[in-house]
Amino acid sequence: MIPARALLLLFFPFAWAGGCRADETPLLRDFIGLNGHTVQFKPDLYQPIGKLVRDYHPVEWDLGPDSSKLPPFPFAKNGVDWSKVYGSWRSRGWTTDVCLMFESLPQKNWRNLEADAKAYGRAFAAAFGPSGSRRLVDSVEIGNEPGSWKDADYRKIFSALAEGIREGDPKLTIATCNLCTGPSGSYEKSVNCLADHPELYDVLNIHSYAQIENWPTWRRSYPEDPGLKKYLPDIEALCRWRDTNATGKPVWLTEFGYDSSTRQAPATGDFSKWVGVTDLQQAQWLVRSLLVFSTLPVQRAYIYFFNDEDKPMLHSSSGLTRHFQPKPSYWAVAHLQKTLGDFRFNRMVTQEGQLRVQEYKNGQGQIAWAVWSPTGKGLSSHPTLSQTPGKLVRAEPMLLQKNDDATTDATQDALGDISLTVSESPLYLFFEKN
Q1: pLDDT tens string for the chain (434 positions)?
Q2: Domain ranges of the chain
Q3: Topology of 344-433 in CATH?
Q4: What are the backbone angles phi and psi of residue 393, rounded to the nearest 5°?
Q5: For domain 22-342, which architecture applies?
Q6: I need a labelling partner for 380 at 20 to 30 A (CA). Which of 44, 54, 145, 236 fits?
Q7: Which helix (H) or strand (E) holds 118?
Q8: C-alpha of 421 from chain center
């Protein structure tokens, strides 16, 4: 239990020696991203979430059975008009990151792997990059999770695609596939695959999920859980590797998320013992993950996924919407964007026991605190926050529905101390400077 009066005396500057300083961390509106998927994504529906969208772009759609023949861009060989897909996103203000999933085309189906990949990269960049007439794509990732490809083969296709993209449009940002700092695995490639070619990529990319158990439950936990061995530690490890080997290159987290379904796991099969989270937990843990990630030297964090069909299995109920109807997580992330979108992380105030407080600041110098209980046990407490940065002018609890009328009991006394109830749902406090 935390004491009734929690003195917030600790000041933690941005902790990463090689990362961004606090005044260089991104505004949350430039930090929060969302994973979509081609023609299924609804750019208008998800506008309250942010302006960064990531697309899973199957290269097989473009090249078809013959990789040596380029598609008639902006059309894919299967008929999809990318100018309409990405054009509709651009017209709604979205910044588009395209994940070129070359692994959707089986390796044996590439006629001449390196020559065809280079030609495809050149054509794609010229057709959609920021230097062309369409200007529809801002960045590309070379592969999603190409774990089935041997490291040597990934190096070949990565180099070929990257060289082609550089030739097609030097202004098009190039990101890696999902990376790890250890040996390559089933879903990630080792940084060692690219260590000798820093000139071919601009961004280091990683996926991370709060998986506390793997098969057969696939159970996930709250973001601050000290029992998680990979969620934050993997991201931190990549940032450390970057600081030593690729100084100045941004790190993007392009997948993280939580499954929440209203249905029971199937009686039989691979996911019969699958364990999801509640809709409330999904909302809380997504928002808290974004807030925690904002303290790291990571420039973007993309939520997986935009929509789901309520299937109780791994990665199948991760949407912010269910059947394109907003879940509580949709409203919670939209509220975070609306509330702190113009703010950037400034400092850690405290992270002890059942209390975590992070400070944010906007361009006008206004200060906001995000306050929550960093647990997964539904706990609440009643601390008193001292050494506050000014007069409390507004307090907003995290919203879970469109017309949520949630209130808070936060009050400030004559000494500036704030008494309040802290729960697992973040509370946002706004101050007028003394």
Answers
A1: 333 333 333 333 333 333 344 347 999 999 999 999 999 999 999 999 999 999 999 999 999 999 999 999 999 999 999 999 999 999 999 999 999 999 999 999 999 999 999 999 999 999 999 998 999 999 999 999 999 999 999 999 999 999 999 999 999 999 999 999 999 999 999 999 999 999 999 999 999 999 999 999 999 999 999 999 999 999 999 999 999 999 999 999 999 999 999 999 999 999 999 999 999 999 999 999 999 999 999 999 999 999 999 999 999 999 999 999 999 999 999 999 999 999 999 999 999 889 999 999 999 999 999 999 999 988 889 999 999 999 999 999 999 999 888 889 999 999 999 999 999 999 999 999 76
A2: 22-342, 344-433
A3: Immunoglobulin-like (2.60.40)
A4: -110, -20
A5: Alpha-Beta Barrel (3.20)
A6: 236
A7: helix 113-128
A8: 29
34: amino acid identity, one letter:
L
Q: Which two tokens stand for residue 424?
A: 């697992």
